[in-house]
Amino acid sequence: MTISRADIAILTTVAASIALGQYFFKRAGLSIRGASPEVALRILALNPQLYIALALYGTSTVLWIFALSRMSLTQAYPWIIAASATVPLIGWIGFGERVNAGFWVGFALILAGLAITQFSVMK
């Protein structure tokens, strides 16, 4: 089974939605820093960033199911790894979190692995 350009677009959207959802989960998490569990639940219940994150995750789940209807899990799953590798970039850019040189090497290897696994199966 091969992966079309449309499939790549779907998988890219899934990966981006997951990574962006993590950004909004982090923002929601920061809004409750130091709060008791009861206060934190009230803050989160009114926090639009939590709902944005949940909507992104919901959308990515539906797209993921659609993607899996069109291709094998073996072909699709490397894109989830791409999302996981992107999240630290969001932490670095969006929150000023530190990333070390090892991260950049690993990130480059993940992207190279994604390219190798996908170019061998593209239509």
Provide the domain count.
Answer: 1
Assembly annotation: single chain
Report the order of strands and helices. HHHHHH
Largest sheet: none
Backbone structural class: mainly alpha
Using the alpha-carbon principal axes, give the shape: flat
Number of H/I helices: 6
Strand content: under 5%
The mean pLDDT is 91
Range of helix content = over 70%
* DSSP summary, beta strand count: 0
| Low-confidence runs of at least 5 consecutive residues | none
Rg computed from alpha carbons, rounded to a whole number of angstroms = 17 Å
Instruction: Measure the end-to-end span.
Output: 9 Å
Protein model, in words:
With 123 residues, this protein is an all-alpha fold. 81% of the residues lie in helices and 0% in strands. It contains six helices and no strands. It has helices at residues 5-31, 37-45, 48-70, 73-76, 78-95, 101-119. Helix 1 (5-31) runs antiparallel to helix 3, helix 1 packs across helix 5 (78-95) and helix 5 packs antiparallel against helix 6 (101-119). The relative contact order is 0.17.
